[in-house]
Description:
The radius of gyration is 19 Å and the shape is globular. Helices cover about 35% and strands about 20% of the residues. Helix 5 packs across helix 6. The protein has a nine-stranded mixed β-sheet with strand order 1-2-3-5-4-6-7-8-9, sandwiched between helices. It has one domain: Rossmann fold. The chain has about 400 residues and is of the alpha/beta class. The longest helix has 17 residues, at about 155-175.
Amino acid sequence: MPRGRFLASFACIALIAAIAGPASQAAAQGDQTNFYAVPDPLPQAKPGSLIRSVRINAPDGANAWRVLYHSTAVDGRDIAVSGVVVAPTGKPPRAGRPVVSWAHGTTGVADVCAPSKNPAIASLLPFVGDLVAVGYVVAATDYEGLGTPGVHPYLVGESEGRGVLDAARAARRVDGTGAGRDLLIAGHSQGGHAALFGGELARSYAPELRLRGVVAIAPAADLEAIFPAAAAIPQAAGFTVMAAEGFHAAYHDADPATVLTPEAVAGSAIVDQVCAQDVIRRFAGTTTSIVTHDPLTTPPWSELLHASSAGNRRAGAPLLIAQGAADRLVIRPLTDAFVQKACARGDVVDYRVYEGADHGGVVPAARSDIVDWLAARVGGDASRNTCPTS
């Protein structure tokens, strides 16, 4: 791997240690009810159908619900996924309110790491106050396996994208939201990866929704670079273990033992017990790479990592890509490379770089631009395209 790409990958992976701690601690405050218990057997229903919902604390001017809804696993099974829906109070317009499906950053793989378990989550979602104020519904998936049975297929694009789309479908089925067909998708970090996949899948997986635009903030897009690079870096080795277990959950022939050391495999049970920061800490003491065989040349890992790297299909809608110039985690060259790939594919890309903004700081730095960009997509305006014209 070229040194520049390796360093970009390392920077991307390092974001886990920075963001997982606060998110996982908040999730650990979750309620003690049986809300996340899935009926056994699970009655078959269409993706996005509600299993149950319950009112939770909401920001001013809004109502909020914790939801459990049907989705589809990569192997086609009907599964339950949890999340949150926030909607403005008052009467919705005749055509329904636009839905913004938010995709969260890395929290971990264990059930305790599900963001919806935080009692205050409806008020903590990025931009939620702005979005509710202009009449949008916000849906926020936990992703498959976070909060609900099974291992979270961490960074498996197909799983993330379906969870994001089915959260928007579920929002339309909650009484009182007034959610319509217009859909916008946004996410940060791991969620940027999920948002991109939601856009790529929307037309084929959720054709009844009208996708208007996709926002990816510092997206972890290139797994073919990230997965092998992390394995050689002690502070990031836990990422590779989480991803290996997540891919194994989605693809049973992706045996972690074919690419990881016996020691890493032996310690991997921790990923289903604690959140990302503790997983990173557990493997930070490794002194050599935890990979025994190159995943980019080892079937089926080579094919699977390629399939879960964003940008191999059309975006599905105009893209807004936000990047902090001072981001030392997902550094600019990594995002530059994705933008070049999207432009070459013919996507409409509005790429904005925020001077002085680091990985976390790019979210508030881009706030007004993102809210305005979403409003322009709802209004039917053409998106700015920063891709080269020739």
